[in-house]
Amino acid sequence: MDREKAFEEMLAFVLERQAETIEQMERLKGQNKTKTATYRQLMGNKIMYENMVSLYRLFGLLEGSEAKK
């Protein structure tokens, strides 16, 4: 697998996981479960994915409109 293809797959994975994490957090928030260990782990994951997307953007590998927050 060439590096560019691997990068594109990783980027798609990160953006997908970021969106899924946000959806899971919203679901738990609606159930008033924001103090659970699961919610807190999801918050850590969300921050990690946001940092990764920020690095992609910093190095010009991602356009601003493609990132999901």
Radius of gyration: 14 Å
Q: Strand count, sense and closure of the main sheet?
A: none
Q: Would you identify the regions where 5 or more consecutive residues have pLDDT less than 50?
A: 65-69
Q: In angstroms, what separates the terminal alpha carbons? A: 29 Å
Helix vs. strand class: mainly alpha
Strand content: under 5%
Describe, in short, the structure shown.
This protein has 69 residues and is an all-alpha fold.
Tell me what the structure shows.
This protein has helices spanning 3-30, 37-58. The chain has 69 residues and is mainly alpha-helical. It has a domain at 33-58. The longest helix has 28 residues, at 3-30. The protein is elongated, with a radius of gyration of 14 Å.
Furnish the topology, listing elements before pairings.
Blueprint (H helix, E strand, L loop, with lengths): L2 H28 L6 H22 L11
